[in-house]
Every structure is written in C-alpha cells, then in structure tokens.
Amino acid sequence: MSVNEEQKRVYRNEAEQWRAERDQFFGEHYASPLSDDVMAVFPGLSYFDIDERLVFRVVMKGPPEPTIGIDASTGSYSEYPIAGVIDVPFAEGVVSLVALRGEEDGEAFIPFRDATSGDQSYGAGRYVSVEIGSDGTCVVDFNRAINPYCAYDPDFSCPLPPRQNWLDHPIAAGERDFVPPA
Fold first, then answer.
1. CB-based burial label for 120 (10 Å; 0-12, 13-18, 19+)
2. Is there a contact between 162 and 70 (Cβ–Cβ < 8 Å)?
3. DSSP letters spanning 65-131
4. For the segment 93-124, what is each residue's pLDDT rounded down to a tens digit?
5. Could you write out the DSSP letters of every residue in 18-35?
6. Among 79, 112, 115, 120, which is 20 to 30 Å from 167 by CA?
7. Pair 159, 112: CB distance under 8 Å
8. Based on the number of CB atoms within 10 Å of its own CB, is 20 exposed (0-12), middle (13-18) or buried (19 or more)?
C-alpha cells in the first residue's frame, strides 16, 4: 500500500469514527437536540460520501471588519465576531468565506449554503469548523460539515450563513438533511 493510499485509509477511518461518535451523541446524550421520542428510534444521521478533495489547508486572512450582522433562524438579528476570511480553492474556483469566532479561544466556524441546501442538505445551510494551527494554517474539512441544531429543533436559534458564504456549486460532503424517523 502506498503512503498516499495509507493516508486516505487513515483519514477515512478517522472520519467514520467522528461520524459514529456524532451519531452516538445524537441518539443517547442528554444534550442532544433531538426530542426523547425521536431519540428512542434514532437510526443515525445521513451523510454524503467522504470526499478527500473537500479537505483544505489554507491561511486565514484578517477580518475586514470586527463583526458581521447575521440573521438567526428564529428571526432575530445579531452581530457576530469575525475570525477572518479564508480563500477556499474549490475545483469550481476560489471562494472567499467569512469565518466566525467560536465560543472558545482559537475556535472558528464557517456557516455556509451551497447548491445542495434545501434539496440534499438542510435548507438554511450548514456549519464547518475551522481548525486553526499554531503555524497560522487552517484546516477546513467539509466532510465534517454539520447541520445547526435548528435543523433538529426549531426552538434553537442558529446564525444563518451570511450572503457572502452562499456558494453556487454543491458541497456534497458532511451531513445531509435530517428527516425524523416515522
């Protein structure tokens, strides 16, 4: 097995483990956004196939502004701190995405919509975490794109993707739209 094949195998195993842990959290944890009734029959989340081409190592540029105004799923509007801007070199072309600061220092995430939104993935968009390395590089792994909690419970208030994070092309990676079990 070549080094490249071994790296792909290791990456896929890690991605599958991450998905299994996420499914376990949703199906069993007291902080799951699912109702008790849905948790009782929860079959697991639905995911796109893993695509190693949708993992990017990039450098985050400084924020153009300190904050950005964003609508929330519940109709409210808030200012969110911007972590920076990331130029993602998709096969369709480079797209500049705004990353928001997470709740903890050193955390960031990108709320985004793409051509799968409302069809194969949650209509309001998804989030992808940004791993910020000590050397300033960032890893953006769209295979770990997740639905916001408002996709599972409309009582959650979730920031919606800002217009500049709406992509014209599909990101067929990460979580698919959640359809509650019957």
1. middle
2. yes
3. SSEEEEEBTTS-EEEEEEEEEEEEEETTEEEEEEEEE-SSTTEEEEEEB-TTBTTTB-TT-EEEEEE
4. 999 999 999 887 778 999 999 999 999 999 99
5. HHHHHHHHHHH-TT-SS-
6. 79
7. no
8. exposed
